[in-house]
């Protein structure tokens, strides 16, 4: 897969996020809708971690490496939050608003990392991730812009902030593809596990907290969370299965993702492993 193809695919998650933001910008918003959108976005983020990141990491990393990388990601998010709190002078309300932006930016960055490193393994994996994330990022975009509207951020700034999310995904995809394509599975999966730690803290501590501040939870809020998880799982895993069975490996031929991983493991074990 060429660098330009990777960059083109990396535009898709950001475009989905921007589309969701414009739905909130030019459509009707309310505290209840914001609560539902944030619950759906949290479910999507948890699905990214549970369905895409950690299962792949478990194939290549020892348990203690996963624990260390995940912990490093979580601690990094705490440090980012502390930095935002020091920079903001508007109090907790504005700090939580910017932490939603940080959470979505981290998620888009992880999308780019997954696309860039996935493209180094298999083109079908990269396509499945990109296609699945288009729909999965719409609720996050809606939630972020609805949150900014609720905090009375000017419209021009809201649109610019929504568009800026695209840069995180494209930039991360470029860096991941260039830096990780020649690396072994260990460094790639350690980086993704690090992102998993960031995303988990973002979903649990900031997105859900902001959802609760916007409006008290209902059973529909829970269903929105479950629906977000199910949406990402069905779209991402379903497309990956279809494309993995019909597409080839990195050069467009061959049996697909599983064959790539099996070949890698065989090469690591040596010629006599079979």
UniProtKB/TrEMBL annotation:
The chain crosses the membrane at residues 34-54, 61-80, 159-178, 190-208, 220-239. Residues 247-274 are annotated as: Disordered. It comes from Fulvimarina manganoxydans. The keyword Membrane applies. Keywords: Membrane, Transmembrane, Transmembrane helix. This is Zinc transporter, ZIP family.
